[in-house]
# Entry
Amino acid sequence: MQPALDIQNLHFAYPGGPTIIDVPSLSMARGEQLLLTAGSGAGKSTLLHLIAGLMDPSRGVVAVDGTIMHELHGARRDLFRGRKIGMIFQTFNLLLGFSAIENIMAALMFSSVPAEEHRAKASALLAKLGIDRQDARPTELSVGQQQRIAVARAVVCEPVLVLADEPTASLDPENSAAAMELIQGLCRETNAALLCVSHDPAMRERFSKRLSLAEVSRAKGGA
Amino acid sequence: MAMTDFTIIRRSMSSRMFSTVTTIITVAVAVGLMLVLLGMRKAARESFQRGSGNAHLIISAEPDPMSVVLNTIFYSRLPQQFLMYDRYERIVSGLPTKDPSGKLQNGYAIPVAQGDSYKGFPVLATTREFLTDFDPQLGVPWKFSQGGPFDGNMQVVVGAVAAKQTGLKLGDRIVLTHGVGDSRAGPPGHDHNEHPFEVVGVLAPSGTAHDRALVVSLESTWIVHAQDRLEREKGEGFLATAADLNASDRKITGALLRFVAETRTSTPAVLQQVAFALKREPGLTVAQPAFEIQKLFGIVSNIDQVLLAMAATVMVSSGIAIMLALYNSMEQRRRQIAVLRVLGCSRSRIFSLVLTESALLGALGAVVGVFLAGAAQNLVAAIMKERLGLVIEPALAPELVLGIIVSSVLLASFAGLLPAVMAYRTAVVTNLKPAV
# Structure
């Protein structure tokens, strides 16, 4: 089986600027969960954006489920990302004009799941996460519920890799613990690899595999 | 049901409801204005041409030819000047209205008098030839839906529109009203109660202003007005008859003239010569309906070109309004676009979403505009009928409606190009970051 994520000699620098990312090698198998820690501005988010194909590296290779991300171009890369990678953000980044269920269905629009199954699949997932008001707008829901919708959106397409960027930074300790329980649990259920970047010390005990960005990247600069 | 691009567009539009509605209204007003101008111009032209009938000339004592045509053919206002009947007979006695050889189509000289009304509808006093020889539309004679022309006095033939709106039918008896509230003689608006008229005919629709008229014999109207004179001279208790008429009662407001011609629709070579001779008659105005209507079109076409240019400007402005609405919304939508890109939406699909939204605003505005135009046309038609006596059939030609809708969508799509390019170029990474 192909690794969920395989990085080789990944290098990124802005033109004329210092090297921000320099990762000789990093690999994650399906179902594996890794916490990457670093201080603010160390380049954690940049690494996630490179993995997701939202930024192009200066050189090196990022392969997701055996496909070299940066060899895909335009719509093909976008579609590949939508189907293979789920992303969770610090500020949830929900679509505000859309209902809870539409936020989930928006992700399914770009998946290979047949259209007639979208609503049932999204509804079942939301019900499982305890979201009863599925037609409510995100602004009508609590912060904890919004986080659950964001997590559901990231895993609904059953991606091989979930990237979580400071997923608990907007939450209180109680909600943080619940959110991480959910993220990790859903990733285990779907056998998705989870790469979580955070500078929250409380996260350390939740991951058996932890690395600091300094251990992964030889770069000394920051993002 | 699954989410589609249309769901995303709908959500985008509904989340900025005020901006969406005002933009649609702007487009609708522009489209409505354009449709009304184009549609009414065509309808008005057809109505004017249709309504001039087959008279070659109209004579009257009115001061200018345009008033003569508008008042006599389109019942625009009550004529203010009279011609005495004996003078009329002298004027027309030498005109080439009858062909002695019998080889050509005879013309006519039909005197008319206006001044009375029935429930706001004009009454035309004339001779029987108006209903037998005069064509309300060139080459299309009168048709009766009930009864026939009058044979004597105190009988009335009702135009199609007047009959429909008043509910008059054969055998009904009605009383005419003197003037229409602004008459020249006698107390305005009084009823001629002493002389009721019986409905003997109802005309089929001709699509002309005459459909609003009630037609009576000239002698009837002279008798009715002689009654007013007799009451002023002798007091009440008299019932005027034809025997009571004197020369001062026998007056008309104009006459329709048609000369000997090869067919019922052709124009004779002598027309200009006759018109020139008539113009030498003092105090007589000679009008050629076809010529006056062309003149009216000339005046109106200058105005409607200005109005069309204004409508086109409003259309372009509505395109700019769409562009501004979408351009301003881009600032709020950058994060939404970035999230959609993360979820798998391509740049080109984002571009087409914004462009489709723009086109949809144009299409919705156009559809609302079509309904607005329909309502506005009915209003304008009612005003034209009231003020000019012009019967316009408001109708939006399908090809015109389709053309305007397509133009509106194309214009809106063009206006959406800049916002769509902005959306296409939205940087994903920058816009995913938490707001500072």
Q: What stands out?
A: Helices of chain A lie at 44-51, 74-84, 100-108, 118-128, 143-155, 173-190, 213-216.
